[in-house]
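[Automated response] Your request has been received and processed.

Submitted sequence:
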Amino acid sequence: MSGFGLRDDLSDTLVIPITQSGTTTDTNRAVSMARARGAQILSIVNRRQSDITASSHGVFYTSDGRDIEMSVASTKAFYAQLVAGQLLALYFAKLLGTMSDEAIVRRIRHLENIPQAMQRLFDRRDEIAACVTQGAGKRYWAVVGSGPNKAAADEIRIKLSEMCYKTISSDIVENKKHIDLSAEPLILVCAAGNPDVVLDDIAKDIAIFRAHKAATVVFADEGDLRFHPAADAVIAVPKTPAPLSVILNTMAGHLWGYYAACAIDGEAQLFRAFRGRLALGRLQKKKTKLSVLDVFDLMADPSFRRIINDFCSRFQSRLQGGALSALGGKTIADLTLLLKYASGKLPLQDIRQDFPGHEDLVQPFDLLDETLGAAIDELTRPIDAIRHQAKTVTVGTSRKEKEPQGVVFDLLGALNFSVKNLTWRNIRTIHRLQPSVGAVEGYTLYRVRGLDEKGNPGPASTIAVCAKGGAALRMSSRAEQPTTLMGVKKTIVSTGHAYLGRGKIDSASIMVIPLQETDGRIGNLLLIHIAFNERLSGPEKIEVLGHRYDDIRNLINEYNLAWNDRYMEALPLECLFGESVEEIARRIQARCNPSPVKNTAFT
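Generated structure:
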């Protein structure tokens, strides 16, 4: 969307971002770009008060599980997002009159039945676990689905990649037969919920997969037997109408992936046990640090040779049976060689040629221990750990965006400053406040020096005028020569926040913007003399006021007065930004009660 769907005017567009954490950089950037062009933003998000909510006009919270989850979306969050999208679509259908009330109620009842259907599928988890062995040993995997089930395939691909540490592709079912199927010998097919005409085509495609020697696992509706002749395994899914079947296809794939990860992790147990037996045997013989003679003694020890030969037999049997596909080729080759060296089947004088790069004398038992450790690492699947999942910063929108424009940003550009000199907070603040500025009447640019290493002002901090323009040329300043940084300007440097209000001495309307240097510390302050744009409407005033509007409204409510947005229309911007919230509230209160009756009960 951010690459090709961003017209200059998106005032006729509603954008619905879907995010668990609300902190993904590319999503939030695209939303900010769309909002800047006038789009309305309605976010479906799990985490309350996350970054994306500040850029949204409305938020649909899924509140599923812990809202502190910050990594790749959890399975429950994905299911909740699908339900939220359905509810939102039904609400729009009601508003637009595109569905009857009966049809909407019927859809909602289907939603209410989803948890029971999920429980039925979960009760079949032993059947799912049993069919994992028929395909999990394949080295390359793919997940496919047609229609809405393509979304299920994409989500299953993500979860299987995370749990099983595999590079997995996803595709539309009918497209899969047009590529080299021999490259992906295991294909998971999301078929449940598709129309009959589509299911017939999928059955034909599965026969094509089988002809290419690919193993197939199909998620199909209960009672649908058309896939059994060609599929290696069929997982029965409770029948639900599309697109709710997406949830059950996805859940079946998640369960299959969980047990596949368990199966891969189980393969590591063979190596853990063997490594432990070797370590225990060396400890019992008090030969944890081996000399050259110790190596020969162990190679000649019958009990050690039995341990090695027993493992070697089981290892080769697993390899020939198609297991251990997650092991790297180098690890398999190294283990095969080292087992032969450790059992005396290969002469030790050749080991340095097979394992070069070691300064010390190379011996098989220490190398075997290291290689077993590498094999265990390659096969271990810490399924419940949040690993390889941090996505707070992601690769996303990277194309260059135009510099912000407007009277304030234009002045910054004329003074050779850019958004790089502003914090993200101040960019957003200036963008919000800029419509309230009718004209720039003058400016004074100050140089700030003497800040400490953290960028905080201290007793030695100074400020000095380095440039003026417009009305400021006729004004004198105590900072014409370097002087102590103090007052409001010191506060602005300390907080780093832009300021819009009145000058403390002359009560002139001003905006003060802190400007950063490359090290992140404030190097300049730009004081702008402004004239407010008093032509703004009440809603436009509310928009530029931001949180200040909430403060005013809340204080009026404290006075037991009913709030009305029309109060904003009667007050000039000079008052709304220049006076305290308490004074503004008193003005509104006076308008509401022009002749208050004196209460004598407490006199």
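Summary generated for your ticket: The chain has five domains: 14-112, 123-262, 266-379, 407-532, 538-592. Residues 245-284 form the longest helix (40 residues).
If you did not submit this request, please reply to this message.
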